[in-house]
Structure to design on (413 residues):
């Protein structure tokens, strides 16, 4: 599957500090470094393309874009992989509801997602892989799990036995009652008769009437959601990645199940850290398709909103924070982008070197974008004199700051 066109990263005159990130599994901020000295390995769970990219999506992908950029600022190579779940129940249900072919719907919304990510200057993944094209990988992984005794049948569907992974539950840290609640709420089937454990998840769904299906050694059918990501990650990143990322609603069951599949198959830890972005609300509730309270990136772009203002509005919130979007946040960001550009257009300005140091340090400290943008705000205020006399003592201030704003924060000003 084709990714979007990646923006070019300007080279920086300084190397950023080592990056530390919050790990859900340990509940602490942990240092990151390539295990083999070669490259950082990042997998971020992608969209199910049955509707347009909303600001909750954008918040997650910009958060992990900051991680990608912070590693690169620190002089590291990065291999970044993302999936697209281009066949799954929500997509099929949406296609049926609106009377559109499910393939057409998936292709259309995936292309819109590419356009939104390009506009927001999110670095493109090295591999963007759809569920459909990964079916051979899924089949091979299921066969490995069968050989390990971790797969069983319920009618014609295949299930993964969570007890096969001794580490099951360590990623989320949830107790069983919480797991059961989230499993039922997030696509699982804890009440299905015939399962060995209510938490066991489907890895191969046998063909149903009017649903797409593919040939396999287990009969015609399609992959379960969790096994798709595990198969792609193992193929693209090897047995252990550095960071498994996604929204906090993926902590369980999705990331727990992915880890279980991979760890039973390989005997190695699935990821060194599990990193999760917070949820964005609107009108008092989490922004989601089911609630219909969505603010679409494409709609804002089509209303002539500068994508850099959208990005800045999101950067003003820490990636792990749950927060609520308001229109006022966007208009403040629109005005601030204009103000930042005015200050940078002067060329000279307040001393830039301390700002560079602070921006890179903030992002290396668990991607603290609010702290980084506050440093730029302070520089702009000093340069324009809005906090007193204008300071233009650094003749090369703009030339120093522009590449850092682009490379580290993804803001092309």
């Amino acid at each position: 599957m084709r990714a979007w066109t990646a923006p070019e990263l300007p080279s920086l005159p300084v190397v950023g500090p080592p990056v530390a990130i919050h790990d859900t599994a340990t509940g602490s901020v942990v240092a990151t470094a390539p295990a083999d000295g070669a490259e950082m390995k990042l997998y971020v769970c992608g969209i199910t393309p049955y509707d347009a990219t909303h600001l909750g999506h954008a918040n997650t992908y910009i958060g992990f874009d900051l991680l990608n950029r912070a590693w690169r600022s620190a002089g590291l190579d990065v291999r970044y992989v993302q999936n697209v779940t281009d066949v799954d129940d929500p997509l099929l249900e949406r296609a049926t509801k609106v009377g559109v072919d499910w393939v057409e719907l998936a292709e259309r919304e995936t292309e819109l997602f590419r356009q939104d990510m390009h506009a927001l200057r999110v670095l493109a993944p090295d591999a963007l892989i759809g569920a459909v094209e990964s079916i051979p990988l899924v089949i091979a992984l299921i066969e490995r799990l069968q050989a390990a005794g971790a797969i069983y049948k319920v009618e014609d569907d295949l299930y993964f036995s969570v007890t096969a992974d001794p580490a099951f539950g360590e990623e989320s840290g949830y107790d069983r009652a919480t797991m059961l609640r989230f499993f039922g709420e997030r696509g699982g089937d804890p009440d299905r008769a015939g399962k060995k454990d209510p938490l066991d998840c489907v890895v191969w769904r046998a063909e149903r009437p009017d649903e797409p299906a593919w040939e396999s050694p287990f009969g015609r059918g399609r992959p379960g959601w969790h096994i798709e990501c595990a198969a792609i990650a193992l193929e693209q990143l090897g047995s252990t990645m550095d960071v498994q990322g996604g929204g906090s609603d993926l902590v369980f069951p999705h990331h727990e199940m992915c880890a279980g599949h991979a760890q039973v198959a390989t005997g190695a830890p699935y990821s060194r850290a599990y990193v999760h972005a917070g949820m964005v609300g609107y009108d008092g509730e989490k922004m989601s398709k089911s609630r219909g309270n969505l603010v679409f990136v494409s709609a804002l772009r089509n209303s002539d909103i500068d994508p850099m203002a959208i990005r800045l509005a999101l950067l003003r919130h820490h990636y792990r924070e749950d927060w609520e979007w308001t229109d006022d946040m966007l208009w403040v960001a629109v005005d601030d982008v204009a103000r930042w550009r005015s200050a940078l257009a002067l060329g000279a300005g307040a001393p830039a070197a301390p700002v560079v140091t602070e921006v890179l340090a903030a992002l290396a400290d668990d991607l603290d974008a609010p702290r980084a943008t506050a440093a730029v705000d302070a520089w702009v205020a000093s340069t324009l004199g809005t906090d007193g006399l204008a300071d233009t003592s650094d003749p090369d201030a703009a030339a120093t700051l522009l590449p850092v704003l682009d490379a580290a924060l993804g803001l092309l000003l």
